[in-house]
Amino acid sequence: KQEVTQIPAALSVPEGENLVLNCSFTDSAIYNLQWFRQDPGKGLTSLLLIQSSQREQTSGRLNASLDKSSGRSTLYIAASQPGDSATYLCAVKAERSGAGSYQLTFGKGTKLSVIP
Amino acid sequence: DAMVIQNPRYQVTQFGKPVTLSCSQTLNHNVMYWYQQKSSQAPKLLFHYYDKDFNNEADTPDNFQSRRPNTSFCFLDIRSPGLGDAAMYLCATSRDRSPQETQYFGPGTRLLVL
Predict the structure, then answer these.
(1) pLDDT tens digits, residue range A56-98?
(2) Is residue B32 within 8 Å of residue B43, measured between CB atoms?
(3) Residue burial A49-77, b: 16+ Cβ < 10 Å; e: rest
(4) A94 to chain B: nearest residue by CA?
(5) Does B69 touch chain A if contact means CB atoms closer than 8 Å?
(6) Residues B4 and B92: beta-carbon distance below 8 Å
(7) A100-106 own/partner pairs: CB under 8 Å, 24+ apart
(8) Residues A84, A114: contact at Cβ < 8 Å?
(9) Chain B residues touching residue A9 (CB < 8 angstroms)
(10) A10–B contact, CB cutoff 8 A
């Protein structure tokens, strides 16, 4: 059974700092990995999606990397801003065994606070 | 804008009183999903509809049911809510179940059980 772990559970940094969020997964047979942002009491906003054949994806100040063989991904945020404060979740998509369909398995997220 | 809409955003119910949460979409997607997310936990898939085909997760309690009367709408029914069912309920859609298809999430409904 796929398990996704995110460390740390919470992170507080001063504004302007670069930071890295970590995600690990137990089964490397994934189709893709996605990073989401969740603001308090809100739904999920997709940030970046990395296909299993890719190493990284970039969007603005965000860069996500994927090392499928080691079961790890990182989300790098450059020059952090108070508006980046949110919970960041990673999710892997993998085939359900024998089912021919695909399932997203989420981590619990890392709660980021950027202090002005 | 095409989107996934959930109503209400906040729902308060009493222990044991049936409650229905609503999700609608303007994306014309074939697949609609319901996730439960408890505080500081990962979203957990409850079930999904592929068109009219209902797919329940093995560990979803019988207390949770779903209806999809048409392409646009999907409902989550909790027959007898317990205190442990208090959570954020997230609806998502995707065009189909192909692995390359992204899921689009609604804003969620936060359920409080008194």
Answers:
(1) 999 999 999 999 999 999 999 999 999 999 999 999 998 876 6
(2) no
(3) bbbbeeeebeeeebbbbbebeebbbbbeb
(4) B99
(5) no
(6) yes
(7) A101/B55, A101/B97, A102/A31, A102/B97, A102/B98, A102/B99, A103/B45, A104/A34, A104/B45, A104/B103, A105/A2, A105/A3, A105/A4, A105/A25, A105/B42, A106/A4, A106/B42, A106/B43, A106/B44
(8) yes
(9) 40
(10) no
Chain-centroid distance of CA B48 in Å reads: 8
CB contact under 8 A, A95 and B45: no
- Residue A27: both structure tokens together: 């089964």
The alpha carbon of residue B79 is apart from the nearest alpha carbon of chain A, in Å, by 24
Structure tokens at A71: 């079961």
At A91, list the tokens.
Answer: 């999710």
What digits encode the pLDDT tens for the residues A22-50? 999 999 999 999 999 999 888 899 999 99
B97 contact A CB<8A: yes
Give the one of B40, B90, B98 whose C-beta lies nearest to A44's C-beta. Answer: B90
- How confident is the model at residue A95, as a pLDDT? 85
The reported pLDDT for the residue numbered A103 is 87
List CB contacts of A12: < 8 A, sequence separation 6 or more.
Answer: A112, A113, A114, A115
Cα–Cα dist B93/B34, whole Å: 9
- What is the distance in angstroms between the Cα of B40 and the nearest Cα belonging to chain A? 6
pLDDT < 70 stretches in chain B: 1-2
Query: Which whole-number Å values give the CA distances from B57 to A1, A22, A42, B64, in the listed order?
Result: 14, 28, 24, 11
- Which residue do the tokens 């019988």 mark? B62
